[in-house]
Amino acid sequence: MLHRIGFLLLLGLGIAVAGRAQSTAPTGCEGVPDTLNCKLIEDFESYPLGGPPTRWRDTKDRELVRLSEDGVMTPRKNVNVRRENDNQFARIYTEAKALRVVRTRRNGLDWNLEKRPVLRWKWRATALPEGANEKDRDRNDTGGAVYVTLDTDWLGRPKSIKYTYSSSLPVGTTVDYGPLKVLVVASKAEQGLGAWIAHERNVVADYKRLFGERPDTTPAAVVIWGDSNNMDSVSTVDFDDLLVLSGTTASRSESTTASSGAR
User: Does 164 have pLDDT greater than 80?
Assistant: First the structure.
């Protein structure tokens, strides 16, 4: 939701792999060629099950707050670490609510775009808000999104790319909300629900295309997100293995999307 993004809202390339459960295949940077200089942002393996990923935060009044703080998580908006097939991941659930889960430079984000311009992550949507459409402000819910915030505009507003798993729009759709650029990288209409999908986005290339200039060298924040408040609906999206790379694992330099059940 644009008007709820707050001070740190924030991503360009995708790979998706078909199947409904992850295996004991490599996690994090395991299996990524050494030539890509893989660096792990998060694989959720170090957290206790059933609670929030404690290195991540929400924002309140432009300040970072712990996810465990009173009122941040409720039965209708929460993020918890889950486990399947010896693999851990984070699940964001919203019921007519919105939740941002933030990693910034102040709470451990260390990412140099000159060295590693590519962001890779995996997600699985099992419920997305019915009828949502990122082009329509009145229906602008995104059940699953990954933001990268890179700069601020002349008014001091964060300039972000929002990579979305859309309820209705086709892959490749872009929506311009001024300092926020929405880019649909997965769609319920095309990828459906229930499969793990991996994406690789060249954030520098995406930023140059969407904003017409190069970004700062160091992103201010990465956010994983879910919301379903405009449609008074429900979203459930799992996130895993956020990595940054010096190049893509695919042969193409632009976006690739592939789905797989085994990593």
Answer: yes
Domain count, the chain: 1
Q: Which domain holds residue 237?
A: 2-259
Could you tell me the pLDDT band of residue 261, with boundaries at 50, 70 and 90?
very low
Is 182 in contact with 165 (CB distance < 8 Å)? no
Reported as a pLDDT band with limits 50, 70 and 90, residue 255 is very low
Sequence-distant (≥ 6) Cβ neighbours of residue 240 within 8 angstroms: 22, 27, 43, 44, 87, 88, 89, 90, 121, 122, 123, 196
pTM above the 0.85 mark? yes
The domain that holds 137 is classified in CATH as: 2.60.120.260
Q: Over 70: is that where the pLDDT of 4 sits?
A: no
Summarize pLDDT for 111-157 with one digit per residue, the tens: 999 999 999 999 999 999 999 999 999 999 999 999 999 988 888 89
Structure tokens at 130: 């019915």
**Looking at this protein, which amino acid is placed at residue 245?**
L
